[in-house]
Amino acid sequence: MDEVEVVVAHSERATLRVGDVFLKVDADQARIDAEVEAMALVPVPTPKVLWRKPPVLAIAAVPGTVLGRLGEPSTASSSAWAAAGAAVRKLHEAPLPPRPGRAGRGLEELAADLDGECEWLVTNGVLPADLVSRNRQVAEAALRPWTPMFTHGDLQIAHVFVDGDEITGIIDWSEAGQGDALFDLATLTLGHEEHLGDVIAGYGTEVDLDVIRAWWSLRSLLGVRWLMQHGFDPFMPGCEVDVLRSRM
Q1: Do the domain assignments include residue 196?
Q2: Is 53 domain-assigned?
């Protein structure tokens, strides 16, 4: 142990790695509370909580490597992606947690936020109007009634760890709670559409693929401004703006 690695840092939270220990510093104590609560409830592998002293949560590293990263080809096998789908199904079938999560926002609130972001993207010249309009149309399919399930809420592929074809851990549960199951499946496969079939095969039940594609558009439209304002680049190859372009 000879260095401190900054894993992610922005105005809301920061994560540091020191050896095999991750230190999560969060300005919102509720997010830390939700994360610890969710990890205690879920029937899938999660990091071990070492200690808590607000605003810091210390967790142990999980074994294995990430399933992949947005904007980069995944080297994980089709079986590993299917195993991720099976783990997500196990999560979704777990008893409901007590609180709504990121994937459980109300339809009216979500539609209003979507309209506001679309207007901002066009008004500020961030994206062409036809690109935004097309993806707004695609996103409409996600704005429908859904049955609440236990969702992760931020199930990007870098939060899923594998060793060979086995899931060894799922991290970052601060957005977990009751929500739309297809939001999780869409987040997991965002930018990796080629592995959607593997994930659905592991998930083991029929899902509405149009809704998953709608969530790709919706999540990307909602994310561009936040990413730009917090030091990330949604225009990198394979990332959110390329996801939006693929809908054209």
Answers
A1: yes
A2: no
Is residue 39 in a domain?
no
- Inform me whether the pLDDT recorded for 122 exceeds 90: yes
pLDDT of residue 8: 86
Residue/partner pairs of 168-172 with CB below 8 Å, 24 or more apart: 168/45, 168/62, 168/63, 168/64, 169/45, 169/46, 169/47, 169/62, 169/63, 169/64, 170/42, 170/44, 170/45, 170/46, 170/87, 171/46, 171/47, 171/59, 171/62, 172/35
pLDDT at 1: 56
Is 0.85 surpassed by the pTM of this model?
yes
* CATH code of 75's domain: 3.90.1200.10
Domain, as residue range, for 229: 64-246
pLDDT digit string, tens, across residues 190-217: 999 999 999 999 999 999 999 999 999 9
In a domain? residue 54: no
